[in-house]
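Input record, target 12 of the design panel.
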């Protein structure tokens, strides 16, 4: 409105200056039907019945939120007796900073809720970093969220950590415990600490027996969060991150890496996805959601283990790595810049999770979809090596990278 008034003032020099308020001469010329619509809306707003309904709805939401807060506080008191706060001040500060950003967004903006309370609930979120190497986090009703030190170590970027934070905030904001309570009628104020204790126990017999004794093992309870709750939290987390400065792809890469680790070490309890481990179907849902929101899936931007990087050597060389694989080494004049260009091209190529046939060679170069990925020359040769040998070695390494990448991401 201000820019419009400024334009009118420039074009109509004889017009009097407009006051710094909402009212203006332009608004005085609204059509009569617009006035009728505004009047009807105002009358509806003043309708005692509508006003009463609105007030009752607000009171119900306020009461529900207060119940969540009270329930969470009681559980928090019991949990704090068993978990020790982290002494890592830097990690704690990192968590608090990211948590505060996502919490502010969650409280300000309503998002689509696939499962849970559709109303926009706001809480004073608290983020507690506790000791332990578990890759684990969990939220309580009312907005207190616990993170183990192991999870912060596992997250390879702030984007991944923000994805977990947003996921856990979604559980609280969508009131998933209350929804489970309503659907199963098996949660109670007295037994919630047992549920939380069992969730954290990793199969501890005493905790599980206590849970069984309380008869809380139902379809949704014994499995922790239900499938619907996890999917809803994933979807909510993506939406929150889209409104933040963090990349929503972090939701995907954190889960994919966790799933891969779990498949390699099934005996390890990975906490956050204990009862519903990452699956191809769930990964595909997140990918579809990212596509729905128009988010480019560039894994190299949110993780270090799924991205190419250039590492300098003591002799002035620069070696291209992807994960644990050394691909090629640039030496001589311009090595740093040539390596940097290869990193950009490799990440663009590998972000698409390519297949073997998409790689070819052209002379001394390795191509991906017809674009040069690695270009080696005589100045790059180690003593006694040939350009063809260096190229072939790089090609073998890239094939291993592509094979592992497809295996990690369920593309085989």
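The sequence produced for target 12 reads:
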């Amino acid at each position: 409105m201000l820019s419009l008034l400024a334009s009118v003032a420039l074009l109509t020099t004889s017009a009097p200056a407009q006051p710094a308020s909402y009212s203006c001469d332009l608004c005085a010329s609204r059509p009569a039907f617009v006035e009728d619509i505004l009047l009807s809306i105002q009358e509806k707003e003043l309708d005692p019945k509508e006003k009463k309904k609105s007030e009752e709805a607000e009171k119900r939401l306020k009461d529900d939120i207060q119940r969540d807060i009270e329930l969470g506080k009681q559980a928090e008191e019991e949990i704090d007796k068993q978990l020790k706060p982290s002494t890592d001040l830097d990690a704690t500060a990192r968590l608090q900073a990211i948590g505060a950003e996502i919490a502010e967004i969650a409280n300000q903006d309503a998002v689509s809720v696939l499962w849970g309370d559709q109303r926009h609930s706001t809480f004073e979120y608290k983020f507690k970093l506790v000791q332990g190497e578990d890759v684990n986090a969990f939220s309580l009703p009312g907005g207190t969220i616990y993170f183990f030190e192991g999870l912060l170590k596992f997250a390879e970027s702030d984007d991944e950590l923000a994805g977990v934070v947003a996921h856990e905030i979604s559980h609280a904001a969508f009131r998933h415990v209350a929804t489970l309570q309503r659907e199963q009628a098996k949660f109670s104020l007295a037994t919630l600490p047992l549920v939380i204790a069992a969730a954290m126990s990793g199969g501890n017999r005493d905790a599980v027996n206590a849970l069984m004794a309380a008869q809380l093992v139902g379809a949704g309870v014994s499995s922790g969060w239900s499938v619907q709750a996890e999917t809803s939290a994933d979807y909510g987390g993506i939406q929150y991150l889209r409104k933040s400065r963090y990349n929503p792809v972090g939701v995907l890469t954190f889960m994919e890496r966790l799933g891969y680790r779990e498949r390699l070490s099934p005996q390890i309890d990975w906490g956050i996805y204990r009862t519903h481990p990452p699956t191809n179907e769930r990964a595909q849902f997140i990918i579809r959601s990212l596509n729905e929101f128009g988010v480019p899936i560039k894994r190299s931007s949110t993780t270090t283990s799924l991205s190419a990087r250039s590492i300098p050597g003591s002799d002035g060389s620069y070696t291209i790595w992807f994960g644990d694989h050394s691909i090629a080494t640039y030496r001589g004049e311009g090595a740093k810049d040539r390596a940097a260009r290869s990193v950009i091209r490799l990440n663009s190529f590998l972000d698409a999770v390519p297949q073997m046939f998409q790689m070819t060679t052209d002379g001394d170069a390795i191509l991906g979809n017809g674009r040069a990925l690695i270009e080696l020359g005589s100045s790059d040769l180690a003593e006694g090596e040939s350009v063809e040998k260096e190229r072939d070695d790089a090609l073998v390494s890239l094939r291993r990278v592509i094979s592992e990448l497809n295996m990690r991401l369920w593309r085989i």
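The two ends are 56 Å apart (CA to CA).
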